[in-house]
């Protein structure tokens, strides 16, 4: 029997590209996209789509039963910057949706879950450079608190009920196909659009704010690889540190200027600076490398070239 997959939050920045990749791997009809809003044409035309509220457990259950779903990828969430504006809403969406999917797996109605965590699980007391897999975690954003709590629940459901849930702490994700959804690392996508449209960008973080980032190609491949790895290789049932590259606004500007020499940047840090300051600058992902052979393909140089060539 072919694997049948449900992607919840399929129309967001990651969900869009992940759904298309899963449809390439498993076949369009075996990957059900779902979201509370419609997606782009490609998503809507390349396989089944269901309007679904991730807060509604019986709706998720009905779709899982109807399509005989094996695996759920839960991508719906409220991200860091938006979460600070609506803390209670962020908490409800991020926690309720995860608990629903974990319970559906516990009840034996699905076999496997992918749920993304984030570098936001770390906080100002975490070692900033090469942040280890196991370290101090005192997140200060509601988004980070929801992701850390989510990690604890994932591990608990795995240990206690044998739920096969797998997770990655994504860094900031950079993509040209879809726009970011209200996070603190969004500048690293916005900068390319503005560079091409206006040759200038006003950055909401200061020039020397180093943050871990990853090109979407790598993030999607990491997601499909961790889900296809044999269960015995997945030793972290909270979530895996994952690293691609790390750079500051000043460094990415210099890289863009190699292609667009007249591009200029100005800096006007806002509330997101404080969030960025509480996060790691770089991540040690040796556990992912050892356990399920993770390896990034993109560094800042090939990422910037690809972003500019696609967006132009
Ligand atoms: N983008 C990043 O840089 C990044 C970094 C770390 C972790 N993550 C995590 O990856 C996941 C996906 O992030 P993203 O960047 O694609 O987010 P996004 O905001 O772009 O997409 C989220 C999607 O969820 C949908 N959604 C919201 N509420 C819903 C509900 N009640 N029911 C169903 N769908 C709903 C939205 O319509 C949207 O399409 C999230 O869990 C996020 O925390 C993202």
From TrEMBL:
GO terms for biological process: L-threonine catabolic process. It holds the Pfam family Epimerase. The keyword Oxidoreductase applies. One of its GO terms (molecular function) is L-threonine 3-dehydrogenase activity. The keyword Oxidoreductase applies. Its EC number is 1.1.1.103. It is an enzyme of class 1 (oxidoreductase). Residues 5-241 form the NAD-dependent epimerase/dehydratase domain. Signal peptide: none annotated. InterPro entries: Epimerase_deHydtase, NAD(P)-bd_dom_sf, NAD(P)_epim/dehydratase. PANTHER family: L-THREONINE 3-DEHYDROGENASE (PTHR42687), L-THREONINE 3-DEHYDROGENASE, MITOCHONDRIAL (PTHR42687:SF1). This is NAD-dependent epimerase/dehydratase, L-threonine dehydrogenase. It comes from Nonlabens dokdonensis (strain DSM 17205 / KCTC 12402 / DSW-6) (Donghaeana dokdonensis). The lineage of its organism: Bacteria, Pseudomonadati, Bacteroidota, Flavobacteriia, Flavobacteriales. The gene is ltd.
């Amino acid at each position: 029997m072919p694997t049948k997959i449900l992607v919840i939050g399929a129309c967001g920045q990651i969900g869009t590209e992940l759904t298309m990749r899963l449809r390439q791997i498993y076949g369009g009809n075996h990957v059900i996209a779902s979201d509370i809003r419609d997606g782009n044409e490609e998503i809507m035309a390349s396989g089944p789509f269901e309007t679904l509220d991730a807060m509604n457990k019986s709706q998720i259950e009905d779709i899982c039963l109807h399509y005989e779903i094996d695996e759920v990828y839960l991508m719906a969430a409220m991200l860091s910057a938006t979460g600070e504006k609506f803390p209670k809403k962020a908490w409800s969406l991020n926690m309720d949706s995860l608990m629903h999917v974990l319970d559906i797996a516990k009840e034996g109605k699905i076999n496997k879950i992918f749920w993304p965590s984030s570098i936001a699980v770390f906080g100002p007391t975490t070692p900033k450079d090469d942040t280890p897999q196991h370290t101090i975690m005192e997140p200060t954003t509601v988004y980070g608190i929801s992701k850390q709590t989510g990690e604890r629940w994932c591990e608990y459901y795995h240990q206690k009920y044998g739920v096969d849930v797998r997770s990655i702490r994504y860094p900031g994700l950079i993509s040209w196909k879809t726009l970011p959804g209200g996070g603190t690392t969004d500048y690293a996508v916005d900068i390319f659009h503005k560079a091409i449209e206006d040759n200038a960008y006003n950055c909401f973080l200061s020039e020397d704010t180093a943050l871990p980032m990853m090109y979407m190609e790598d993030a999607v491949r990491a997601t499909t690889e961790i889900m296809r790895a044999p269960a015995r290789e997945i030793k972290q049932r909270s979530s895996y540190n994952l690293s691609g590259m790390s750079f500051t606004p000043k460094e990415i500007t210099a890289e863009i200027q190699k292609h667009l020499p007249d591009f200029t940047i100005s800096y006007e840090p806002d509330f997101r600076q404080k969030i960025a300051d509480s996060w790691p600058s770089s991540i040690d992902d040796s556990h992912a490398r050892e356990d399920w052979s993770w390896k990034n393909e993109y560094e800042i140089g090939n990422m910037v070239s690809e972003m500019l060539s696609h967006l132009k």
